[in-house]
Amino acid sequence: MSGAKMRSKIAYLGPPSSYTHQAALSLFGDDNDLLEPTVSISDVFEAVHSGSVTYGVVPFENSANGSVVYTLDLLIDREKRFSGIEVCGETYIDVHHCLLGFGKRVAKVDEAPESGSITPTMNAPNPESPRTRPLSDLRHIRRIYSHPQAFGQCEAFLSTYLKGVERQEVSSTSKAAEVVAADSLRTSAAISSELAANVHGLKVLARGIEDREDNMTRFFILKQGDSNPLTVSLDSAMPSQPATQEKWKNLIAFRVDHQSSGALAKSLSVFGSHDLNLTSINSRPSREHPWHYVFLVEFSDERRGGRSEQVNAALNELSTRTQGWKWLGSWIDKVPIEN
After folding, report:
1. Which residue of 40, 85, 150, 209 has the fewest C-beta atoms within 10 A of its own C-beta?
2. Confidence (pLDDT) at 119
């Protein structure tokens, strides 16, 4: 486009109304011409890697249910399909799930029948009580659709009111709502957002069914890495990253010699010796040998941009303690401040 700067396109895990869509909107605004939904997390990586979009938005972890393993595996990139993709930002979204579907509203909320039990057992001596009751009779529901993460975040409600009902995993919560809206028998339900109910014409059968009121998901912003991995370049599509002193996060992946005593402990000790704070550790199977792992480590430091000398020094030492490491990105810490 001559004489004008082309605007960046952003891929996200769709369909529209997904929580990832909401994260993308919070970051880049509501210009739908710039936002491109994809079917899977892998498709977001593919779009960024191919250059058809400038940025990608993917879920990384939930405060209650942990990491999104699909994203971890794609960042590790065992098959070397997405070389050069880096994390360049993050955002946090409050996640409040609804049960969506078809049904009649119950006369009184207290009359909602329970299909499960919150009675203590030997296996569950302190069962968690659901935070809410259904707004509709749920006895007609034969199947529930949602993303695996959403199922894990709503276990108390599901085990109390929908115990034994078949669960069907799909690519996103908004996809679940799309599937249920097409159910001619009207015997299925979706765990999704209230926004998805409005988009797909579904009834909210229960609201706020997540186990924890402070349920939150962290999303990563991806970009294709520069030839110089020490810098993080951002254009006008991204929120501004000031040059003042900031707390930064960094992500790397590495392998160790599993036959060497203390190899992992020695590798992790490098960060403390360079005054770097480890903020999370994940492991995924290496798929090179059974019971061998790739470790993803997130750590923080304070600086004004670029990669600090202490980070470089730590990575140089890490090279002597591991069988190789991979730089996965650097970004300003946006974790919400606790009240």
Report:
1. 40
2. 52
Q: What is the pTM of this model?
A: 0.81
pLDDT tens track for 143-175: 999 999 999 999 999 999 999 999 999 989 999
**Cβ density class 305-336: b for 16+ within 10 Å, e for less:** bebbeebeebbebbeebbeebebbbbbbeeee
Token output for 338? 């606790």
3-state SS class at 298: strand
Length of the chain measured in residues:
339
Measure Cα distances from 208 to 127, 233, 272 in Å: 18, 39, 40
Per-chain mean pLDDT for the chain: 85
Sign of the Cα torsion 47, 16, 73, 333 reads positive
β partners of residue 11: 36, 56
Contact 15, 43 (CB under 8 A): no
Give the pLDDT confidence score for residue 107 in this predicted structure: 44
Helix or strand or coil: residue 71?
helix
The gap between the terminal CA atoms of the chain, to the nearest Å, is 47
Residue ranges in the chain assigned as alpha helix (H) = 19-28, 41-50, 69-76, 148-153, 155-161, 173-181, 194-200, 263-273, 309-318
Q: Residue 99 is encoded by which pair of tokens?
A: 């049960």
CA 250 to CA 102: how far, in whole Å?
45
| Pair of tokens at residue 227 | 């030839």
Judging by DSSP bridges, how do beta strands 55-62 and 10-13 pair with one another? Answer: parallel
d(Cα 103, Cα 91) in Å, to the nearest integer? 35
What is the sign, positive or negative, of the torsion defined by CA atoms of 217, 53, 48, 36? positive
- Beta bridge partners, 38, equal 13
Query: Does 226 score more than 80 pLDDT?
Result: no
Q: Cβ contacts of residue 7 below 8 Å, gap of 6+? A: 31, 34, 237
